[in-house]
Structures are given as C-alpha cells and as structure tokens.
Design a protein that fits this description.
Shape: globular
Largest sheet: 4 strands, parallel
Order of helices and strands: EHEEHHEHHH
Number of strands: 4
Radius of gyration: 16 Å
Strand order of the largest sheet: 2-1-3-4
Length: about 200
C-alpha cells in the first residue's frame, strides 16, 4: 500500500550528484513506490542504484509517461521540470547540496568512467549557481509546482529533521524511521570542508 495519494505525483530533482538517487531509495523505503526502469544499473558511484526512468528525458516531446506516475515518485534532472505539463500538480523535492561537493563528486564519477568534463570547476560552479537561481525563480511563479528544498548535507550527516519535513510535505503518511535507516554515512564520500547553503 502506498504512503502517498493515488493521484499524487512526486518528483525528486536537483543538480547532478546532489543526492537524488539516495532520496528515491528513502522514499521507496518510506512507502512511496518509485517509477524507474533499471536500465542504468548500480555502480561504485551509486551502489544503491540510480532510480532513473528513461522516458522522462523526452517529456517535452511526449509526456505520456506521466500517466504511469500517479501515486509514485520519479527522478528528473532539474532542467526537465520546465517541460512538465501545467495541467497537473507536482510535489517536488529539490535536493540542495554544497556546490563544491557536487563538483568533487561529479569529477570522481567522470574519472571512474574515464571521461573528462572539459569545463573547469570555477566555470561549472558559476553555471550551476546561475541555474539554481533561475530554477528557484521559476518555481516561485509556477502554480503547478509544490516544492520543498531538502539539504542533502544534513540528511547525509544523520539529521532526521529534513525527513520529517519531507513527510509533512507529502501528506504525513511516510515511514520516517525506514527512510532514516537508508542513510549510509559511509557513502558521504565527497564532503566539503565548509558547507554552503
């Protein structure tokens, strides 16, 4: 039995490497079924899996996948939310993580894949910071989006307060203790010396 309403669409989003996969696993443990296809399998960068659903990448051209999403949680890169049809309501969880940690984590993942980004960290940080500002402004003006920002750093460090906020945001029926049990501090590997909001 789902812990969210049958007509509820939960979207987990954020910048790359911001903890969206962890949040999907937490929601699944808490009673919100995930919409994912398993095409991208777990690896050393995401040992608990990526929880991705390929059709979300084609939302602008074909949003029909949303018909499968009622009563479930789905993960989307933040930039794809702009393409969501406005005739539905979405409960969004936006994962916020220290930008230095995101860049460190992304760099490590690319190294593990024998790839390079081609963009230096300073430029990438400026791009990401600008994208966050734009996204927040858009969210504030979007009546079809009900958004909660969640601090990855606090959750990964063991704080349960953000989990209580998530539960309240999604209707109060989630199993918060099961969600908290998913957090594995050993996976918090790219930790900044100082953490920014």
């Amino acid at each position: 039995m789902s812990a969210i309403q049958e007509n509820q669409i939960v979207v987990v989003t954020g910048l790359p490497r911001s903890g969206t996969s962890m949040m999907m696993k937490m929601l699944e443990a808490g009673g919100a079924p995930p919409l994912c296809d398993g095409q991208r399998t777990a690896d050393s960068d995401n040992p608990n899996g990526y929880y991705e659903f390929e059709p979300v990448k084609q939302t602008k051209q074909n949003p029909a996948w949303l018909n499968q999403c009622s009563g479930k949680a789905v993960k989307m890169v933040y930039s794809l939310l702009y393409d969501l049809p406005v005739d539905r309501q979405y409960d969004v969880i936006f994962m916020r993580r220290d930008l230095n940690e995101i860049l460190d984590s992304q760099r490590q993942m690319l190294q593990n894949m024998d790839l390079r980004s081609g963009i230096d960290d300073d430029r990438m940080a400026r791009l990401f910071a600008g994208e966050i500002v734009r996204f927040r402004k858009w969210i504030a003006q979007s009546d079809h989006i009900n958004c909660l920002e969640v601090p990855y750093n606090d959750i990964a460090a063991g704080s349960e307060q953000p989990i209580d906020h998530i539960n309240a945001h999604l209707g109060g029926q989630l199993n918060t203790s099961a969600m908290a049990s998913i957090v594995d501090p050993s996976l918090y590997r790219n930790r900044a010396a100082t953490q920014a909001a």
